[in-house]
Amino acid sequence: MSADAFLPAQPDLGASTEMTHEAMVARWQQGLVTPMSSTIDTFAKTDGSWWTGGQGGWQRVAEADRNERLDYHHNRFGSTSQAKGPVAVSPQWGGPARRG
Q: d(Cα 54, Cα 17) in Å, to the nearest integer?
């Protein structure tokens, strides 16, 4: 039996355009989400697409050119470590807000 048989099943998000905040956090905890940066928590990439978050959940960024621009800016921020996440600084990811 392969090791993959013991991993939790991940839903195919290919056709989804919306995701609950809880679903995004669960994917982040499993290492499947790359946030835009450690300080920008309203954009996150998972399942090959960027998503934008708000109080109502997450919306897939459907336009290919906008996804490419988000990739460009993500690379400029140097946040290439998958699932590093801003959990310690943002309530968006389940952590306390940064004080400043």
A: 14
